[in-house]
Amino acid sequence: MADFGVEAKGVKNINFTNWSQTYSCQPNLYFIPKDVEELREIIFLAKSTSKKVRVVGCGHSPSDICCTDDYMISLRYFNNVLSINCETNTIRVEA
């Protein structure tokens, strides 16, 4: 069952504009989840309410790819290095 308390964490009346100010939108709700569990709750809420989800980074895309009238999610807090493998010279990072 969904925890619709996560809906209260969504911000209304956000006007998103990309860096070049060529595209903008006003998503129904704008979320900035702090962890994977909160992200899961937002996705479940979107599915339960038939909303589409767009993920936005810093808004540097020169297109309207992240614009939406439904839910927008910022992954601002998903910026951690998860692991470093010196043998294979690879790292695993969050979004």
From TrEMBL:
Keyword flag Oxidoreductase: yes
One Pfam family linked to the record: FAD_binding_4
Top-level taxon: Eukaryota
Regions crossing the membrane: none
Record GO terms (molecular function): FAD binding; oxidoreductase activity, acting on the CH-OH group of donors, oxygen as acceptor
Keywords for the protein's UniProt record, in alphabetical order: Oxidoreductase
Domain FAD-binding PCMH-type: start-end pairs: 23-95
Family the entry assigns: Belongs to the oxygen-dependent FAD-linked oxidoreductase family.
PANTHER family listed in its UniProt record: D-ARABINONO-1,4-LACTONE OXIDASE, L-GULONOLACTONE OXIDASE
UniProt name for this protein: FAD-binding PCMH-type domain-containing protein
Organism: Oppiella nova
